[in-house]
Structure formats: structure tokens, C-alpha cells
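Note to self: keep these together.
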Amino acid sequence: MNRRQRRATQFAASKAAAKSAPKIPPSKLKPIRAKKQQKYIGKQFMGLGRRAWAGICALVVVLSLVEAAYQLRPQVQIDIDKSLDLRDPFATRFDVINSGRLSITDLRFDCIINAPPTINNMGLSGSGQQSPTRELPAGQQVVRGCGASAPSFPLNANLTFEVTYNFPLLHRLKTTAHLISQKDAQGVPQWFKSVD
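Structure:
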């Protein structure tokens, strides 16, 4: 038997085997295809689900970090202490309140006084009433003044009280209160915070 005859015999045998093999009806093929499609779609959804959960977890972590940074931010308030003396208005003292959640350190206090025409941008710092404070814990306050004196309350006066301090990670920061002299409802001169 030569090569051509052998090939012809093998082809005939494979054709006979294909004819004798049971044929799967199309109705049975459909469920098999459907199952394969379901598995494929299931894998797709599982992949999407994993990615969605990973995205949600990342978003939660970022929002938590932002919230923590917001809660730990420095919050220093400057309020006018109830010590205004109309005969010596620049001796007014100020409450410096640390309303944040962390301590602030190395507090320094400065005043800039304007009472034209006699006083223009007079800066005061380091006097007895402005002595530096090493640390101000959270929720605590310290009272400081400008250490200046004036015989009367000039209605064109203004005063700037500055507090500079160190805060963890953010280094040197400054909080400022601008005050202007005005008469209150009873006509008495007072310091009022100006809104910048």
C-alpha cells in the first residue's frame, strides 16, 4: 500500500467515525452556550464588583484623612477681654483662645496702633503685657494686651492685634484681629472687630 492509498484509507475511516458518532441536537447546544455566556457575564460582574469595592475603600480612606486633617487644624481665636477702660483704651486686653485639638507653642504677641494724627502705625511687641508664652494647650486661653496708654478714646483709632505661633507640621502661623473704635447703641466708644 503506497502513501496515497494509506491517506485515502485514513480519510475514509475518519469520515465513517464522524457519521457513526452521535450528533448533538441544536436544542441541547443552546443550553451549553448559555451556560458559557452566564459564566463569562458572571466573571465580568465579579471583576466590576471588585473594582467598585476597591474604589469605595480608597474613597473612604481619602475622606477619613481629610476629616482628620480638618479636625486637627489650628483654631486660634482672639476676643476682646472685658477690661476696656475709656480713660485708657489702648490698655485693653485680649483673650487668645486655642480652640483646636492640639497644643500650639512659642506664642508671640504684637500690636499695631493707629490714632491719627498723633499715632500712626506704632508697633508694640515684647512688652510686659505681651510676654511670649511657651505653650498653649488645647482648650486653654491666655490674656495679653498692647501695653500702650492714651488719655482718651479717639474715635478714628484702630488697632491690630497679632498672634504668631508654631503648630505641629505647619510651622509658623499667624492669627490677626483688626479692631476699630466706634460708638455703641448707648453712644459709648467701644472696640469693634472689623470684618475683612
